[in-house]
Amino acid sequence: MATYFRLTDVARQFTDASGNPYSGGKLYTYTAGTTSAKTSYKDSGGLAANTNPIVLDSAGRIPYEVWGTTGAYKLKLDTSADVAVWTRDDITGVNDSAASVGGEWVTSALTPAYISSTSFSLPGDQTAVFHADRRLKIVDSSGTDYATIITSIYTSLTTITVLVDGSGVLDAGMNSASTVSFSILSTVNTSLPFLFKKTAFSAQLTTALTVAQAGHRLISGNDDAGTSLQYDHGNNYDAVTNFDYTVPSTGAYLFINAVVFNTSASISDGELIYASIHVDGAEAAATNIAMGVAQAGFRVQCVLLAELTAAQVVTAKIYHTEETGTVQLSTASFFTGRRIA
User: Using CA atoms, how far apart are residues 4 and 40, in angstroms rounded to an integer?
Assistant: First the structure.
């Protein structure tokens, strides 16, 4: 015996941005991820099928109840003049077991298409559900990966870029239905009072470095002599763009830029070790040590807590201002960042 699940609220009303009802609007029901019509019903027993599209009344309300069968639907709303208003995909009925809610995850019925080790696409506009910072569980040829959405962009498809936990990468084994699950909790209007995000990135020198000239930039793609510096960096720290960190999404971020002396260093009069953090090229935070002797293990550290917007570029720099002197820096020199809200 078939089981039916409620798809929409009773007498739900649809209006435009000005509050005007979509009188005579048309609500189409399809199988999720397709343009194949899928029948909905006026009652919980499936005795009477709705028309497809369902035509809204003069108040923009659905004139009947809307019940669906097992499995996800795609809903599409057009005006009475057949102008598209919106499309909502991967909609499952209330208490439909096909939603596959297991613990913290909801399995999507959509079929992803592998693009690269950090990206894939989904059919239709899925940006409302698959939004930046939402957590994903992805099954592919290598097993199960967990990832955080960095960007979600809709054109003709929704292209999703992710940061995979640890050293994991995506592969083409994800190209089948029900391989992608999203977290029950969303970061948009979340019910959590405060949510720490996954560490955005970290970078650390892989070998000790001797600063031998003024203006030496420790955390950057090249030192002042043009020598490439080597770092052990995380997945979301872009080694291509001169080791600058590009903010993936708007929010509050905490950054730490630090350098540790692995041997005692003489800091002469007028000599300076200077740590700073720049946002879009402008210095946002800085600290320094000048004159005297720095003991082994001594740290110069700069901290920045700031509200940043997507695409802003954050760079850490450490300077040694003595033209002829040298200061040996430790492999503990590092630059880290975390989105905290």
Answer: 9
What is the mean predicted confidence (pLDDT) over 220-230?
44
Select the more confidently predicted residue: 2 or 304: 304
Residue 132 has a pLDDT of 80
pLDDT, position 79:
93
Type of residue numbered 173: G
| Strands 334-339 and 251-260, sheet pairing | antiparallel
Fill in the amino acid letter for 26: K
Cis peptide before 53 (omega within 30 of 0): yes
Alpha-carbon distance 17 to 13, whole Å? Answer: 13
The more confidently predicted of residues 302 and 268 is 302
Are the beta carbons of 7 and 40 closer than 8 angstroms?
yes
- Sorted by where each begins, the domain ranges of the chain are 1-96, 100-183, 199-339
CATH of domain 199-339: 2.60.120.40
Superfamily of domain 1-96: Phage P22 tailspike-like, N-terminal domain (2.170.14.10)
pLDDT at 54 over 60: yes
How far apart (Å, rounded) are the C-alpha atoms in residues 207 and 200? 23
Give the residue from 264, 315, 257, 310 showing the smallest Cα distance to 288: 257
Here the tokens at position 92 are 């499952």
Phi, psi (rounded to 5 degrees) for 99: -65, -20
Concatenated DSSP letters of 188-210: TT-SSS--PPPEEEEEEESS-EE
Chain segment 75-112, per-residue pLDDT in tens: 899 999 999 988 887 777 765 555 544 567 887 878 89
Task: Give the whole-angstrom CA distance, residue 173 versus residue 112.
Answer: 10
What is residue 327's predicted lDDT score, i.e. its pLDDT? Answer: 56
Q: Which CATH class is domain 100-183?
A: mainly beta
Can you give the pLDDT at residue 205? Answer: 59
Token couple for 124: 């239709």
